[in-house]
């Protein structure tokens, strides 16, 4: 269930949120573990990139998220998935969430759709026809054979908002990572249990892009709509979506 996700898309308020992050949130949040891993990501962020729209701060945010240091990405994703009610106040990662989301949107500015794969040792139950979202940033890959991440449940994903990180991650391009944002919505179109669809996967879900769902769009930037109320669909996509559960 991703009802408690911090799922801000910053549609219509990106510049306003950037100002708020630079003037308020980053100074407040740069402490303890986040401060340490942010500093450690400086060398990674200095690597050259072909995308001139990405700032050094964007690159550093990607390096932080993809770093294996103290499994920080798990701490961050747990907060993104569960701390909706703290967003705008005590949520500890407003700055990282914004820069990472902005980087993903810049890297896939043309909304190019990609087929990617995600593996896990966790068991999921989902039905064909359900609409679901991950509710946090989901690391996926263009590769099918990253068996070390699990074989219990696998996802074949058609993402249109996820971004190919190229050589930006800490591991460079070894895993051909595509990062899917928390607000991207998917339709389960197939569930395969034959073990033949993706190498060594017991259950494979086929997920097709189905738009977006955001409860908190621009909430922190504009202090609008209390977190207990859904903001509805994004006008940028001209559609309405129903958030269902993958449980």
Automatic annotation (TrEMBL):
EC number(s) on file: 2.4.2.31
Any one Pfam family match given in the protein's UniProt record, by short name: ART
Keyword NADP belongs to the record: yes
Enzyme class: transferase
GO MF annotation list: NAD+-protein-arginine ADP-ribosyltransferase activity; nucleotidyltransferase activity
Keywords tagged on the record: Glycosyltransferase, NAD, NADP, Nucleotidyltransferase, Transferase
Domain of life (superkingdom): Eukaryota
InterPro entries in UniProt: ADP-ribosyltransferase_ARG, ART
Keyword set includes Glycosyltransferase: yes
Catalysed reaction equations from the record: L-arginyl-[protein] + NAD(+) = N(omega)-(ADP-D-ribosyl)-L-arginyl-[protein] + nicotinamide + H(+)
Family statement drawn from the similarity comment of this UniProt entry: Belongs to the Arg-specific ADP-ribosyltransferase family.
Name this protein carries in UniProt: NAD(P)(+)--arginine ADP-ribosyltransferase
Organism per entry: Oryzias latipes (Japanese rice fish)
């Amino acid at each position: 269930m991703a009802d408690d996700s911090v799922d801000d898309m910053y549609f219509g308020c990106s510049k306003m949120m950037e100002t708020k992050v630079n003037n308020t949130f980053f100074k407040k949040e740069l402490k303890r573990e986040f401060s340490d891993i942010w500093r450690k990501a400086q060398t990674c962020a200095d690597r050259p990139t072909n995308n001139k729209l990405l700032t050094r701060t964007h690159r550093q945010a990607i390096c932080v998220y993809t770093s294996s240091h103290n499994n920080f990405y798990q701490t961050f994703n747990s907060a993104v998935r569960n701390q909706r009610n703290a967003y705008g106040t005590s949520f500890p990662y407003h700055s990282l969430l914004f820069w990472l989301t902005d980087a993903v949107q810049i890297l896939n500015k043309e909304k190019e759709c990609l087929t990617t794969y995600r593996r896990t040792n966790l068991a999921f139950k989902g039905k064909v026809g359900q609409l679901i979202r991950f509710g946090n940033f989901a690391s996926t890959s263009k590769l099918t054979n990253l068996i070390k991440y699990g074989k219990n449940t696998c996802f074949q994903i058609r993402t249109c908002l996820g971004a190919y990180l190229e050589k930006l991650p800490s591991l460079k391009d070894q895993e051909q990572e595509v990062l899917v944002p928390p607000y991207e919505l998917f339709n389960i179109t197939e569930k395969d249990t034959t073990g033949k669809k993706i190498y060594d996967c017991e259950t494979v879900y086929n997920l097709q892009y189905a738009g977006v769902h955001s409860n908190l769009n621009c909430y922190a930037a504009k202090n609008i709509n209390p977190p207990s109320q859904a903001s509805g669909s994004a006008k940028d996509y001209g559609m309405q979506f129903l958030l269902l559960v993958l449980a």
